[in-house]
Each structure stands twice: as C-alpha cells, then as structure tokens.
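Give me structure tokens for this 180-residue protein.
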Amino acid sequence: MKDISEALDAAVKRLEQEYGNLQIGRASSGLVENMMIDSYGAMQPIKNVASISIPDAMSVQIQPWDKSMLPAIEKAISDSDLNMNPTNNGVSIILNIPPLTEDRRRDLVKVVGRLAEEAKISVRNARHEKLASLKREEHDKEITEDDKNRGEKQVQEKVETANAKIVELAKKKEESIMTV
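Here you go.
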C-alpha cells in the first residue's frame, strides 16, 4: 500500500505545483522558476541558472549568473504558454504581469479544470496498476482472496481521498482566480 500512497501523494503535489505556476494577476517566482531552458547543452530549470526576485506585486525579475544565458531565458519565456513578453535590459529579464481580464480568468479556470483532470487520470492509473498487482499476487498464491479484497478496499479509500483533495484544490484555485 505504500507505493500507491506515494503515487497518489505525488499526483496531488504535482497538481499543487502546477497551480502555483499559474499566473493569476500577481507576481510569483513560481511562474518561471521550473521553466526549462537550454543551459550549456543541458536542459535545466531557470532557478538553477538565475536568481528570481519580485521587485513589486506586478513584476518578476530574472537575473542570470551568466549574462550569456539571457537570450535562452528570454526565448523560453516567449515560447511558453504564459503569454508574456519578457523585457531584456542587458542585465536581467523583467516580466510585467498584466492585470487579468474576465476572458483570461475564464481561460485560467479551464486550465485549472484540465490540470485537475490530468491529476485524476494519474490517480486512476495508479489505482489500475495496484489492482492489477493485487490480482497477480492472488493468482501467484502470494496472498489470499480475502487479502486481495481487503487491499482493493484500501486502495479505493486512498483513491477517494486523493480525488477529494484534487477537487478541493481545484475549487480553491478557481475561487482565487475569479476573485477580482
């Protein structure tokens, strides 16, 4: 049961991370810190090659430790789905966070729903793998039918708990996006 608990926790944590990266009208380092860039021939997150600061509530400043990384960071941000134009001042990159329009808020709510559905799919996949594992163990006479049935109930309880967390996270994120 430990492996399914870890898989379900990972799905919920990944969802929380994705929600943290969503732009909701105020500056956050989470918008860009895990964005992958080509750094010296290897893909790395921006946080590994630059310092990220929030000079005010509506802007993010990215200052690479090596100035030659500026074009790669700028390109990664431009190519991302953030829909922002980075400003390169030769020393750092500034992202100005525009205020959210009603249409953008609705689009973000759709993204929240899609991310929640992806998390639920990973939960279903983890459940499927564990149930198949229990059936194999029963078939190979490693566990009894009662153990398998008990295991299936435990798996279902864990899945329901994880799905409830996902729904709760999605609802909170939707509320924070739609709050003006």
